[in-house]
Amino acid sequence: MAELVSIFDKELTLAECVAYQKFENYGWQTLYKSYMSNVIKALDIHSDISRLYLLIKLDITMNNLDETLLKIQHEDKLIISPDSVQLTKNLKDIIPDADPIYLDIVGEFYANNDNKLYEFIDQITTNKKHYPKLKEYNEHINHLAVVKNLRNNFTIEEFLKMCPDPVNYFKNIKLNSMSTHYNESLSYLSERYNLLSMAKLRTELLKHKFNLTNTVEHLLADPTPVYLKNKRKSFSSRLPVNYKTTENIEFLKEIAYLDHKDEILNHIESVKAVHRIQVEQAKSIGELNTCGCCFDNELLTSEVFSCPAGHIFCSACIKKGTEVAVGGSKVDIKCFGDCNEEFNLTMIKSIVDDKLYQRIMRLKQAQEIKAADIEGLETCAFCDYSVILSPDLKIINCLNPECKKETCRQCREESHFPYRCDQIEKAPEVEVRTMIENKMTEVLIRICYHCKRKFVKEDGCNKMTCSCGKQMCYICRQPVDSNYSHFYHQQVMENKWVLLTVNNLFIIL
């Protein structure tokens, strides 16, 4: 322990950081994975700090962010060096789909060790070593942004977008099981009701099957509470995971609801009251509309949309229909009525969220590019990104920010440059695992005979349509015509395959 204290109290050089005992044998990667959330939070405050230095400080404080930041404020922190920055920049060109903070750490660790650097790059490019991906990093950044908004930047409008019906949601859903949210719930109750005994709080939480919202409502309604003589000391600080430190978004949504319940309910009632007045006014002058899908007949003009032929639908039905269509890789959102018109993309954009609309645009662009039948067109094996390549290029560099993978043009696997497809060596345990995984999934996975894209049937019939437009039989994997002559429905027919299967399983008769 004395050694750790001395390291914590001294100003470290980069060489001393690299020599930190727990960094041996890629230990820095393990520590980064464990401390990722606090690393991101600390870099939001100290963006120029050495990543290795930060990992050491977090490790010595047992990942206590507050203690680490306090210590950093009172010392001359180690800044990431220009050599490390340049190396990281070069690494991002080589490994574009890697977590950027991970590459910062690699840049520091190998800035002065060329041999180890070349060994590391060889292991990465030959898939002998895995690394944190850019997609995972972006997901973590987005996750922390939601956590921050729920905890510190709460607004009723944003909250209701995440949870449109909070009253029924939190009263009925089982969010707080004993195994997942018990400590968080108990710590919240302890701080909110610091004049009630812990025994009382535990009993009430158990009585309400660990539903925090119902527990709080019952405690508020208790006509004869038995109070302690003095306020209890903080219980949260004694728990490794409590409501102040948790990053579980579902639980934080419930805490936000409980802490802002009156504001939320008043806002909901205010919106409902205004809506009722608007509906009555529209009804009096005959301007209410009916959805042609769900048949709700009390819709305001602002709540409905129409196809070019004039068929009217509510926004909820159009949103659901769009989600279903995009889930099947369809980009032409057809009218739900008896016509062949398509919904306008501008209208769709005003109804669906940004993520779904971006997915629609990517699918549409991919469809248009493929329809052009351009020579040299290649598509990323992991997403819809397409690019025109000259015959001498062997690698597909995906520029989709959510993917960023490099794909071998020949074998359609992740890039293994500079080695040929048949030169890639795999560790025995990887080969065994891969063999098992392949055997387990080959019964489900299909590969389009035209564009070679992999897909799995989730539901529907066995005539599958790839996003490239080609159709094939899910059972025998052969190309089929646009009609259903390849299949039988109820009565078994020779040389034909069953059209519908149950639970994605099929029996070969």
Helix content: 40-55%
Spans of at least 5 consecutive residues with low confidence: 1-6, 502-509
Q: N- to C-terminal separation? A: 69 Å
The shape is flat
Q: Quote the average pLDDT.
A: 83
Radius of gyration: 29 Å
Major pleated sheet: 2 strands, antiparallel
Adjacency order of strands in the biggest sheet: 1-2
- As a percent range, the share of strand residues is 5-15%
Q: Return the structural class.
A: mainly alpha
Count of individual beta strands: 12
User: Helical element count?
Assistant: 20
Draw up the topology in text.
Blueprint: H1 2-9, H2 14-18, H3 27-45, H4 51-60, H5 65-73, H6 82-94, H7 100-109, H8 114-125, H9 134-151, H10 156-162, H11 166-172, H12 182-192, H13 198-207, H14 212-221, H15 249-259, H16 261-284, E1 304-306, E2 312-314, H17 315-327, H18 345-351, H19 354-371, E3 377-379, E4 386-388, E5 395-397, E6 406-408, H20 428-441, E7 445-447, E8 454-456, E9 463-465, E10 471-473, E11 487-488, E12 497-498
Parallel strand pairs: 11-12
Antiparallel strand pairs: 1-2, 3-4, 5-6, 7-8, 9-10
Textual characterization of the structure:
This protein has 509 residues and is mainly alpha-helical. Helix content is 46%, strand content 7%. It is built from 20 helices and twelve strands. Strands 1-2 form a two-stranded antiparallel ribbon. A two-stranded antiparallel ribbon has the order 3-4. Helix 3 packs across helix 4, helix 6 crosses helix 7 and helix 9 runs parallel beside helix 15. It is flat and about 80 Å long.
